[in-house]
Amino acid sequence: MLKPEERLEILKCLNQNSYAELRQCLKELHAADIAELLPTLALPQRIKVMRLVDKSKASDILFQLHKDELPPLLEGLGPKRTAEIVGQMFTDDAADLLGELPEEQKNILLGLMEAAEAEDIRELLRYDVDTAGGLMATEYVAVKKDITAAEAINILRKIAPDAETVYYVYVTNEREQLVGVISLRELIVARPDTLIEDIMRTKVISVHVRTDQEEVAKMMSKYDILAVPVVNDDMQLLGIITFDDVMDVMEEEATEDMMRLAGNIEPEGQEMESSFWTRAGKRLPWLIGLLFGELLAGNVIGSLSETLERMTALAFFITALAGGPGNAASQSLTVVVRGLATGEVSKNKILSVVWKETQVGLLVGVVCGTLLSVMAYIWQQSTILGLVVGLSLAVSIVIATVLGSMVPVMMNRLGVDPALASGPFIATLMDITSMMIYFGLATLLIL
How is the beta sheet containing 207-208 ordered, strand by strand? Predict the structure, then answer.
């Protein structure tokens, strides 16, 4: 976020009377700062800024703006200036931006761009946005395996300025198939006359063009790499995905999982962009279903009203017996869902994770149960009440942690997104279970 003094400095810059002074002032500002302030300006000022900054900075600013802010700005800039700005972007960023525009406007802009660049962007637009093909950029550094290190460095000097990253140099054969990779450091320290095939690594971590974006993110995180090559069925190199693109994916996936954990099934984490009718429609089925579940928990209490009448002090602890296990279940659920999403919980670790969560539940249950039992005894001077309350809480928390860790695992095995095993669902289930345990034990030990 911009500091107040930084905001004032930028506004002062934008109020320059001379175009030359404004252009020089904008040159010294960071694109991210301009992009943050731009939506707060009047449309004529926004257009003025985007016309005066150089095309490279304008492309950085444009890509950081929200999609709802683009149509009026692009209309004001005109097709020619917009095409010039989009042409400065890497192909993956340009495809993302153009993919948000109406078909007619997109085709006009592509028609004004250089033929080769427009064709690359059209190719990327054919892939699903949530696949490796939808994420990849076509600006990368590749050399043939039968050239020398000195020749490769000369090629690098020519094409590196246009590449998205030069940390890795990919090696291809005569059929454009990916056969190896060299780091920039390995290339620089190699003897000039050394053949590339003699120093390249042949075990290349790559992804298929149709691989899901979440799997790409997991792979890059697992192997700690800054970029991953994208290949087709014939192992031909099509493009690369860089770490900054994967960071965006991880944010999207985390947002989606958090929305689902909250009982919301908005697919892309775009809840705030939907109408209130749509948002309510997404939530109502869950909330109505959970409402009937809570009524079932109330029915358990009603059916054991005789027990409640015999010892009215039991009513005081209902909220603790309902809330505590639900919170414990949600904690276990969050840990396991996150582990499944990041790949930390693999198939061969599932039983181990469930057992560890069960052990946590045992410890937490004993401590919380003992504490509540002591409080009940001090308040009512009743050993039997303390035993019922404490034992009920301890058993309920153990069951809650087991359910919280097992339900998402079971859903994952069934091919269902484990994030759908939402916190409200588990909490409602535990309300019913804990009330049955609580009043069951009270009926057994008090009556």
Answer: 207-208, 227-231, 237-242
Q: Which domains does the chain have, with CATH numbers?
A: 4-126 (1.25.60.10), 142-243 (3.10.580.10), 271-446 (1.10.357.20)
Q: Which residues lie closer than 8 Å to 410 by C-beta, 6 or more apart?
A: none
CB burial class (10 A; 0-12, 13-18, 19+) of residue 327?
Answer: middle
Question: Left, alpha or beta for 380 (phi > 0: left; psi -120 to 50: alpha)?
Answer: alpha
Instruction: Name the amino acid, one letter, at 76.
Output: G
DSSP letter at 412 equals H
Write down the residue that tokens 């017996």 correspond to.
321
Single pTM value for the model: 0.56
The residue type found at 405 is: S
Contact 223, 230 (CB under 8 A): no
Tokens of 268: 């892309």
Low-confidence ranges of the chain (pLDDT < 50): 263-265, 267-272, 286-287, 290, 421
- Residue 135 in contact with residue 216, Cβ under 8 Å? yes
Select from 75, 72, 27, 71 the least CA-distant residue to 49.
27
